[in-house]
Amino acid sequence: MTSQPSIESRGEVSFAVAKAAKLHRQRADEILSELGLHVGQEMLLNVLWTQGEMTQTELANRLEIQPATLTVALRRLEKSGLIVRSRDPEDQRVSRVQPSFKSGELRDGVMLAWARLERETVQNLSEAEQNMLTILLNKVADGLSAD
C-alpha cells in the first residue's frame, strides 16, 4: 500500500517557513516573557518609543494590523501601565496612544531581548547567508502581500 504525500512533501518551502516561524515565535515568547511581555507587544511599544504619541488608527496602520486586534493589545498594555490612552482634544472620537514612563523602563530590556533572539536565530548562518535569508524572506513577504 502506498502512503499519501504529506503536507511537508507537497510544500517543502511552506513547511520550512511555517516551522521556522513557529519556533521563532515560541522563542520570542520565552525571551519576552522574562520582561512580562507577550509577542507583538514589544513591536507596538517600539513604534511608540520611536515615533511618539499617535492615534490608534495611525498605530494600526504602522503595525499593519486590524484596529480590533490593536484594541485588544492596547487594553492589555494599558492595564499593565505600559501605555496611556487619551481622547484627542480636537476630535473626541479619536483615541491617542503614548508610551508610559513605566514602559520606557523596559526599552533597554526589549532591545537586549531582540538582540538575543537575533543571535539565536542566525547562529548557524554565515553573514552572507544571513543577508541572503533577509532578501529571500522579504521577497516571500512581498509575494504573499501582492494583490
TrEMBL record:
Molecular function as annotated in GO: DNA binding; DNA-binding transcription factor activity
InterPro entries on file: ArsR-like_HTH, HTH_MarR-typ, WH-like_DNA-bd_sf, WH_DNA-bd_sf
Annotated keywords: DNA-binding, Transcription, Transcription regulation
Listed transmembrane segments: none
The keyword Transcription regulation is assigned to this record: yes
Pfam family, one: MarR
HTH marR-type domain boundaries: 10-142
Record-linked PROSITE patterns: HTH_MARR_2
Alphabetical list of CDD domains matching this protein: HTH_ARSR
PANTHER family (UniProt xref): TRANSCRIPTIONAL REGULATOR, MARR (PTHR42756), TRANSCRIPTIONAL REPRESSOR OF EMRAB OPERON (PTHR42756:SF1)
Protein name: MarR family transcriptional regulator
Organism lineage: Bacteria, Bacillati, Chloroflexota, Dehalococcoidia, SAR202 cluster
